[in-house]
TrEMBL record:
<keyword id="KW-0132">Cell division</keyword>
<protein>
    <submittedName>
        <fullName>Cell division protein</fullName>
    </submittedName>
</protein>
<dbReference type="InterPro" id="IPR019587">
    <property type="entry name" value="Polyketide_cyclase/dehydratase"/>
</dbReference>
<dbReference type="Pfam" id="PF10604">
    <property type="entry name" value="Polyketide_cyc2"/>
</dbReference>
<keyword id="KW-0131">Cell cycle</keyword>
<dbReference type="GO" id="GO:0051301">
    <property type="term" value="P:cell division"/>
</dbReference>
<dbReference type="InterPro" id="IPR023393">
    <property type="entry name" value="START-like_dom_sf"/>
</dbReference>
Length: 162
């Protein structure tokens, strides 16, 4: 059962980071390389506790569907999404946001998953999937960081004009 952990420091308030990470629209922008789009459940805006989203994407040249549900949430500190159906045997994805200051947040991303197909799945993890998922999550988290920082800068500019 691989566990991928990442940590990013974002120059933006905790709430902006929290909202960026649960934005369906931002998710689709950040995963354009896999043509990921929301096709069921919450398909735009911010996803909330108890809600689901079904994603359609192309991974490894194969069109796939994955449904995830927000199973835990304490705004703006953290939320958890878990797979309801899809290519994994299971996953538990925790997104945490720790304020470091008024305009700085540490984002912690923990993706704990299991692949199907027993020993073949474990071999696929070792050879391909863990590295693939690490790159996928890093790209997505870097996009969240850039978007949150851009929003924070825009809000600071607006408040200076007022």
């Amino acid at each position: 059962m691989p566990v991928i952990r990442m940590e990013f420091t974002i120059q933006a308030p905790q709430q902006i980071c929290f909202d960026a990470a649960r934005s369906i629209d931002l998710h689709m922008e950040s995963t354009a390389s896999t043509r990921e789009k929301a096709i069921g459940g919450v398909t735009s805006g911010l996803i909330n506790l108890g809600e689901t989203v079904t994603w359609e994407a192309v991974h490894f040249g194969i069109k796939q569907h994955l449904t995830a549900k927000i199973t835990e949430m304490e705004a703006p500190r953290y939320f958890v999404d878990e797979m309801v159906s899809g290519a994994f045997k299971r996953f538990h994805h925790t997104h945490e946001f720790v304020p470091l200051g008024e305009n700085e947040t540490k984002m912690l991303d923990t993706f704990d998953y299991s692949s199907p197909f027993g020993i073949l799945g474990k071999l696929f993890d070792w050879l391909v999937l863990e590295a693939y998922m690490t790159r996928f999550l890093r790209t997505r988290n870097e996009y969240i960081k850039q978007a949150a920082e851009a929003k924070a800068r825009a809000l600071q500019q607006e408040s200076k004009k007022s």
